[in-house]
Amino acid sequence: MYNALSSLGAGGLATPWYANATAAAGYVFMAVLCIIGGIIVSKIGVRASLLISSTGDIIYAGSLYLNSKNGTQWFLILGSIVSGMTDGLMYAVEGPIITSYPEPDRRGRMLALWVFMRNAAPVIGGAIIFALNSKTDSSGGVSLQTYLVIIGIMCAGPFIALLLSHPAKVQRKDGVPIVFRKTGWAQTLQEWWNVVTSRNILLLCPLFFTSWFYGSYIGTLQTQYFNVRTRALCAFAIPWGDILGGFMIGYFLDNKRLSVKQRARMSFIGLMVLNLALWVWTAVVTKQLEDAKPVIDWTSPEFGRTFTLFLLFDLATMATQTSLFWIISHMSNDFIVLSYMTGTLRGVECAGQAVAYGIKSSDTTDWLSIGLNVGLIVFSLPFAWIVIRKIGVSKFEEINLGLGNAEKESDVQSENEKEQTYA
């Protein structure tokens, strides 16, 4: 539901600048909680973490409602910060769930299913938003009823979180148990530090940072140039791009006709080329919009090329993020270690989003955002390639801390199977 509101541009408000400023504040707190969230997960468990993390977005949606109705800006800042903190914890717990619960040979498909589940709700929320705003053919904010319906759906989240199985009770088809270790504070902090400062994670951080950097700019374009009902249509239709991107890359990464090495390299090269090509297209579209300054309706001639661009950005970004989780899943099979790794992934992503939304919190030139996005992608490529070229070629120096002998033996067996696959 949070994604459904985000798909409206500026959370459905009439102007993007203040919404972008509050989003930047939220992402700062989100980045911190993502990175340290694995420590919290290791202490309170997965269900309690999900329960807590599913409450913050309700407060954020309520703050959007009050700001739209009464202009209550201080609560919008508070709601964004609370949402950022709880979402940071959510990212720290969802990553290890989706990378450790599935068997290795089904991980790509399960990542794709996760993407579908994440975006099925925005599709439903987007359909509701579209139905409530389809007749508003002027620019401005969405109707107040939109927020009330979304808040009502969000309130089911904490109860649904209680249905998750504990890692120790999950029965995988390969018979390998999921290890959820309990450690003292000193060992926990030492392990966390070893993971977040490991060489492979640090090399991937520039790509983590830029992977969602585009969102503030695209959301601002929607708010500036699309009318309300067209933004509502985007909220319904654009999540399908996420779903398609997740399934396309997920099934490709599980394709056994290609070696692991080929899958890793082909997906990385293809996705980076696609991302850079989209920014070239964005530069062209931006120049056209700046010159014409239209208010775009779905009947406008400008709608097709701008809407398609937004849809492909979501497809490319979700495919990129899914591949990043797949890469990390090759680096460890320890639930707690994976929570530290995926938390770092999402934390660095959020730091990038905080910077991106901070830039668009005022009416800065669009070309600054375009130049930064292209520059960050190009900068990240050589560092990420150092890690990508290891997959399927040499054994990763996996960080599996505190595993018992049974798990270590299963790791050795799994590595032998990997080496046969590589051969």
TrEMBL record:
SUPFAM superfamilies named in the record: MFS general substrate transporter
Topology with respect to the bilayer: Multi-pass membrane protein
Cell compartments where the protein resides: Membrane
Pfam families (alphabetical): MFS_1
Keywords from the UniProt entry: Membrane, Transmembrane, Transmembrane helix
Record flagged with keyword Heme: no
Record field: transmembrane: 17-41, 48-66, 72-91, 111-132, 144-164, 201-218, 230-253, 265-286, 306-328, 335-355, 367-388
Record InterPro entries: MFS, MFS_trans_sf, UNC-93-like_regulator
Protein name: MFS general substrate transporter
Naturally occurring in which organism (per UniProt): Hohenbuehelia grisea
